């Protein structure tokens, strides 16, 4: 089966933003008198608020989780967003994937505003074909496995409304294989996943990405 699309996470994969997210979360935790080691917070980066906060503060109710998430977003955008820089050759990688004839898909737990900023930062507006953010899913299920499945659903829905060429490239249940470049691995590595018809059950094989 031909590879039709490559999915990329953004934070910590294409742009060097994870440490800034740690700083923003630490500022939020300081407001309520909670103290965590930076590495403990760093290990949670990539999750949405509704997964990150309960992991570190399990007694926090949903209203407080939402408030903390909004405060994190405010602090990050006001203090750190403009400091984030792309990793070296990130744009070159995206361009190489597109040149190979594969669709470039960005799947991130970032907001749409942040995603648009990063695309401009990488000068990748003409490269990225489809994208999905935390605004496209009901919950911020942004740990790698959950975001992978939820992003495919959101992207597929967009594709069905738009370019017919894109839809078959990202549908999980179609049985077609896709590549997902994930934040927990270097840019040049991928996960190759084969659909089994279940959103949670996929065989995973790791191989070197020819586009890397």
Question: Could you characterize the architecture of this molecule?
Answer:
The chain has 212 residues and is of the alpha/beta class. It folds into 2 domains: 5-16 and 85-208, Rossmann fold, CATH 3.40.50; 18-82, DNA polymerase, domain 1 (Orthogonal Bundle). Helices cover 43% and strands 14% of the residues. The protein is built from 8 helices and 6 strands. It has a 6-stranded mixed beta sheet with strand order 3-2-1-4-5-6. A hairpin with a 7-residue loop joins strand 4 (178-181) and strand 5 (189-195). The longest helix has 19 residues, at 62-80. It is elongated.
Key terms:
212 residues, alpha/beta, Rossmann fold, DNA polymerase, domain 1, 2 domains, 6-stranded mixed β-sheet, 8 helices, 6 strands, disordered C terminus
Percent helix: 40-55%
- Proportion of residues in β-strands: 5-15%
- Continuous helix count: 8
Count of extended strands: 6
Overall SS class: alpha/beta
Characterize the overall form: elongated
Termini separation comes to 20 Å
H/E series: EHHHHHEHEHHEEE
Q: Which residue ranges are poorly predicted, with pLDDT under 50 across at least 5 consecutive positions? A: 140-145, 161-212
> How many domains make up the coordinates?
2
Radius of gyration: 17 Å
Major sheet summary line: 6 strands, mixed
Short description:
By secondary structure, the chain is of the alpha/beta class. Helix content is 43%, strand content 14%. It has eight helices and six strands.
